[in-house]
Specification:
heterotrimer; A mainly alpha (281); B alpha/beta (532); C mainly alpha (317); A: 281 residues; mainly alpha; MetI-like fold; two-stranded antiparallel ribbon; B: alpha/beta; D-Maltodextrin-Binding Protein, domain 2; four-stranded mixed β-sheet
Chain lengths: 281, 532, 317
């Protein structure tokens, strides 16, 4: 009994630790300028004069002297939603197919391992050639340009995870479906794929988060039309106060909503989802 | 509607009368823009004293506007120009100042029919995007922004256009004897030319000025205690040692007051080292030998400056090494420091009655940097850095129009009007700026002579090809000395080694040439008499 | 001795198997071709271009603005390579990266595993805690970085809380000491990515077959013995995948460091990504290309070792 209580206390403690920075960000979003940093007199655990100014700053063009950003956050939010979703879609479609091919047919040769190595490159190292290539193909500052590169750089993730989910489904099921008159592709589509719904959900969430959070690639490959949320956050500076911490926190809070919503929607799948071949043994 | 028609008609008639007496060129492209004084073809309107910033066709901004109208008539002008602007400068263009004035973007649009589209480009990433734009041939911007110090690098990279021909044709007023640069031709050359040609156009006068709490300095009890302790009347110090005494005296962290908060963090802190170092020579101590490009920092002077840089941390915030500009300004605004060193805009932003976040309105004054007594002379030196500048892309689609926009905004009258606007961080640099009443009101009358005096005594930063690297090498070593990872001697020795490596990589001859080109901009024999 | 019929049937069988294999081959190709093409199309050029640049000393500043494909004008064979493998800044950045990865990944694994065990049982508000623990992953690093920057100021919340707990005034400026800055950076990464490990390991744990564990319990094994003999071996594939997925990302750690310390103080937290970003700013683009090639080679060697357990697992199935 004591053990149970101790365990519960431990969970609460860890959850509190994890939550504290988020709490700080959430309260920062409602703090007025003097309360942002502790460079003043005291630390503000809770906004003493809560204000919606930070949100106004990023959504409404004002003309007082603290607003120095020439664009609002609505554009980047929409851009991020579109581009991250499309990139995730591309990575999932290609990854599901490739994962199945590797799992069932051992196809692709060295593809799986090459994919993993791809994921290990520091982006800064290949940024210039990518930038050159994208400029040449006129894909800079376009939604498809950024979505495609996101699809490719998260392909290793989606392929590997889906491959392991497919490994969990015994191939006898495929063969049974084929015996029943399905084509191979039909077996894949109608029998195997539905069984991996959980895996698809969790992989899609991870890939989406990776795309949503990216800064470097978006910074290099976008300009004024298709900047994403991280790129916009970077721009939140002003002449009078330097970094606009309040608006950054406000946008950070809003930017956390889509992944959190996505996560809650697939929560039941998440817990059931990843087994990585452990069942077989 | 009726009144403006009458005014417009009156102006139109008046204009033509004067125009006829001036010659045909001034009749071309006349507008009936309401609110303009007689004979003027453009400029801000709608507030008291706006005539001071209006111009006729024979003045530099007027020539620019006329040029743009000619281009428009010939169909060679764009409808829109994309201008890369750091977020801190957007206010100058998009917010009208003073009350009743239209924003600069709108004025420009009215007079030329060209819309300026500002695109935020964070200052620290400007050079990356400019090079990217050039290398990929993307031509995403029609006007670039850059730090003046990085100008030579960008010119070396071929990204900026040589505008000498356009300068000859349209005659800007940058070196006008009455309204030109405080530092004269040498300053103009240093901030706009590379290898003798114009490549970028300065729009900022960033020099390091010192700001202190007048209310603390005038408090009778403080004055009594200070005189008892140190023997001289409390005032802004002449020398660095005296600054130590003042800062030590006011360093009361438990009561929420810091001695001094001049920045020590990465990327900004090293300019405070510059001030201490540059003031060790007569007329100034240089960074490099101009004939060999050998660094001069690994020397007793360099070590001394580093030791001081470290020793003064005792009266700084404990977080001084990670405090940026936001923390420094916030702290000052909350009344948390006695003395600090910042950009000329600090009084503009923090001593502003409209700034409800500032607790020090009316409580600060500014001063020129402390210095050193050498041969009986007080040598005060500061640094000018980084200075926002604008430039025409070398592959730009509308080079002539972009240049004319820059000639317009950098002209004496328009730049004065722009800089007076407290909504952005262009700071004054021309003689006319410092004589202007509206600007003086924004920056405060007591601050104007300090800015002028500092500009006269300010040394150029490192402004040769490879500037980012030189700065970072020095900065990194200073940081390591500040965190006790290295001794001061080791830090300057390593910085020298690093600098030599950069010089040989970039080409020693090229570096020597650049150093020599910057020398005329260094302050000459300007000395002060000690007050204390 | 086979009869004619038997051999014929076996011929037919082998013919059928042969066709099946051809089909399988074609099907496999069909499934993997899109991914292969995407990869080829997008990865090949950057790698080749990087290789090309690494043999030159080109930078955007050489020759007054030569474009990248004219870099051959500054051909330098292997001099970049000789220089970079003896460049202390580059090597130290690799060392720091390895230090960070070697610390954060196991820590994230252990904490994630511990949490996963705790979450196997029922307790009140479990769903809520589950969501809270997942939240750090959902915060964009561009924001998490500066939040941690603010938390670790000497007058910030971390010191305030520590002071309350330890009854001693703590005012360490965390971000300005070379060792403490490293710790802060690691803490930021652990905060952000432990949820991922938790998620993966929890699912793995929940999928473990009950029968083996029950058998062990009946046989009298205590918790530790059950863990070592039954749970751990069964969990091994999950752990391996988690370590690899997280390790791959940890090598590239950048956003939090850049926002908290910019690689400082000095170069104390300069990892390979920070180092490369700085070199990009200095316009040493061919140097960065060389560094990229070297990093790829090093990682290939390392990954061959790291992937051995997966390869073995592959061979078994």
């Amino acid at each position: 009994m004591i053990k149970k209580i101790l365990k519960y206390v431990l969970i609460i403690f860890v959850a509190a630790l994890f939550f504290f920075p988020i709490y700080w960000m959430a309260t920062m979003a409602f703090k007025p300028f003097p309360e942002w940093t502790a460079a003043g007199e005291k630390l503000y655990w809770f906004p003493e004069q809560p204000t919606l100014d930070n949100f106004r700053e990023i959504f409404v063009r004002r003309t007082d002297f603290k607003t120095d950003i020439s664009s609002t956050a609505t554009g980047p939010i929409i851009n991020s939603l579109i581009i991250s979703s499309l990139g995730t879609l591309m990575a999932m479609v290609l990854g599901i197919m490739a994962g199945y091919g590797i799992s069932r047919y051992k196809a692709g040769g060295q593809l799986p391992f090459f994919l993993l190595q791809l994921r290990m490159f520091p982006p800064a190292a290949v940024l210039i050639p990518v930038m050159i290539m994208w400029a040449f193909l006129r894909m800079v500052d376009t939604w498809y340009g950024l979505a495609i590169i996101y699809g490719v750089v998260t392909l290793p993730f989606s392929t590997w995870l889906m491959k392991t989910f497919f490994d969990d489904i015994p191939s006898e099921l495929d063969e049974a479906a084929i015996v029943d008159g399905c084509s191979s592709f039909g077996a894949f589509l109608k029998v195997v794929l539905p069984l991996t719904k959980g895996g698809i959900a969790s992989t899609a969430l991870f890939v989406f988060i990776l795309n949503w959070s990216d800064f470097l690639i978006a910074f290099i490959l976008t300009d004024r039309k298709w900047g994403t949320i991280p790129v916009y956050i970077n721009k939140l500076q002003s002449a009078t106060v330097g970094q606009l911490y309040g608006p950054k926190a406000a946008l950070g809070l809003l930017a956390a909503i889509p992944p959190i919503v996505f996560g809650i929607m697939i929560q039941k799948y998440l817990v059931r989802g990843l087994t990585f071949g452990a069942i077989k043994k | 509607m009726n009144t403006s028609f009458k005014v417009g008609a009156g102006a139109f008639v008046g204009f033509h009368v004067i125009g006829l007496s001036k010659g045909p060129s001034s009749v071309f492209g006349s507008t009936s823009k309401a609110g303009l004084a007689a004979g003027m073809i453009g400029g801000p309107t709608g507030f008291e004293g706006c005539e001071r910033y209006q111009y006729g066709p024979d003045e530099a901004p007027g020539r620019a506007i006329e040029g743009l109208r000619k281009l428009k008539a010939a169909g060679k002008a764009p409808k829109e120009m994309v201008m890369a602007l750091p977020p801190g400068c957007v206010g100058h263009w998009e917010t009208g100042f003073p009350k009743g004035a239209k924003p600069a973007m709108e004025v420009f649009l009215e007079e030329t029919g060209i819309k300026i589209t500002p695109v935020d480009l964070v200052a620290t990433e400007m050079s990356t995007k400019v090079i990217q734009d050039y290398q990929t041939g993307a031509r995403a911007y029609d006007v670039y922004s850059l730090w003046g110090a990085e100008g030579p690098d960008l010119v070396m990279a071929g990204a900026l256009m040589n505008v000498d021909d356009l300068v000859k044709q349209y005659k800007p007023d940058w070196n006008d004897s009455k309204t030109g640069y405080v530092g004269g031709d040498a300053m103009l050359t240093a901030t706009s030319k590379v290898d003798g040609s114009f490549y970028f156009i300065n729009m900022d006068g960033d020099e390091q000025v010192w700001v202190y709490r007048k209310d603390l300095f005038e408090d009778p009890k403080e004055r009594k205690d200070f005189k008892a302790k140190y023997g001289w009347d409390l005032q802004f110090p002449d020398t660095w040692e005296q600054l130590d005494q003042v800062a030590d005296f006011f360093h009361r962290p438990d009561k929420g007051l810091l001695g001094c908060t001049d920045l020590r963090n990465q990327y900004w802190g090293f300019t405070n080292w510059y001030q201490r170092y540059n003031s060790m020579g007569d007329p100034a101590r240089y960074f490099f030998d101009e004939n060999t490009a050998k660094p001069l920092i690994n020397s007793p002077e360099g070590i001394q400056a580093t030791k001081e840089h470290i020793a003064t941390m005792r009266y700084h915030s404990k977080d001084a090494l990670s405090w940026g500009w936001p923390q420094q300004y916030a702290n000052m605004a909350a009344g948390g420091t006695a003395v600090t060193c910042a950009y000329p805009n600090m009084p503009k932003f923090l001593d502003d009655p409209n700034n409800k976040d500032s607790k020090i309105v009316g409580k600060i004054r500014s001063a020129i940097s402390p210095g050193r007594m050498t041969n009986g002379k007080l040598i005060r030196r500061s640094t000018w850095w980084p200075n926002v500048a604008h430039a025409v892309p070398s592959k730009g689609k509308y080079a002539e129009a972009a240049y004319l926009l820059l000639q317009w905004c950098s002209s004496a009258k328009i730049s004065t009007w722009l800089v007076a606007n407290p909504g952005g961080y262009y700071d004054p640099w021309r003689k006319m700026h410092f004589q202007d009443p509206i600007l003086s009101k924004s920056y405060h009358e007591w601050h104007v002579p300090v800015m002028v005096g500092t500009l006269q005594r300010a040394c150029p930063p490192i402004m040769i090809p490879g500037v980012l690297e030189y700065q970072t090498v020095l900065d990194t070593n200073l940081q390591e000395a500040l965190t006790n990872q290295k001794s001061p001697e080791q830090a300057v020795a390593d910085a020298e080694k690093g600098w030599e490596k950069i010089t040989s990589r970039n080409g020693r001859d090229r570096t020597i040439k650049a150093i020599k080109a910057m020398r005329p901009a260094w302050p000459k024999a300007i000395y002060d008499k000690p007050n204390i | 001795m086979r009869t004619w019929r038997e051999s014929n049937v076996s011929n037919q069988d082998s013919q059928i198997t042969h066709t099946k294999q051809l089909d399988k081959g074609r099907l496999g190709l069909f499934f993997t071709l899109p991914a292969q093409t995407a990869l080829l199309f997008i990865v090949v050029f950057p790698l080749l271009a990087s290789l090309y640049l690494s043999f030159t000393t080109w930078s955007p500043m050489t020759g007054r603005g030569t474009l990248w494909y004219q870099a051959y004008q500054f051909w330098a064979w292997f001099s970049n390579y000789w220089n970079i493998i003896t460049d202390s800044a580059f090597l130290l950045s690799l060392v720091r990266t390895v230090i960070i990865v070697v610390v954060v990944v196991p820590v994230e694994l252990l904490i994630g595993l511990g949490l996963a065990f705790l979450f196997l049982e029922k307790f009140p508000l479990k769903k809520l805690f589950h969501s809270v623990i997942l939240m750090p992953m959902m915060i964009v690093p561009a924001v998490a970085g500066f939040i941690f920057y603010m938390l670790f100021q000497s007058a910030g919340p971390v010191n305030a809380i520590l002071s309350k707990i330890l009854f001693v005034e703590i005012t360490t400026p965390w971000l300005t000491g070379s060792v403490t800055a490293m710790i802060c950076v690691m803490l930021a990464d652990i905060w952000q990515w432990t949820p991922l490990m938790f998620l993966i390991l929890l699912s793995g744990l929940m999928a473990l077959p009950e029968d083996q564990l029950n058998a062990a319990r009946i046989l009298g094994a205590n918790w530790w013995q059950r863990f070592r003999m039954v749970t751990l071996p069964l969990l091994k594939p999950v752990i391996v995948i988690a370590l690899i997925l997280r390790g791959m990302e940890a090598i590239k750690i950048f956003d939090a460091i850049w926002l908290m310390t910019k690689g400082g103080p000095g170069t104390a937290t300069e990892t390979i990504s920070v180092y490369l970003t700085k070199e990009l700013r200095y316009l040493h683009w061919s140097w960065v290309a060389t560094a990229g090639v070297i990093v790829v080679i090093l990682i290939s060697f390392a990954s061959i070792h790291a992937l051995k357990p997966i390869k073995e697992q592959e061979e078994q199935t």
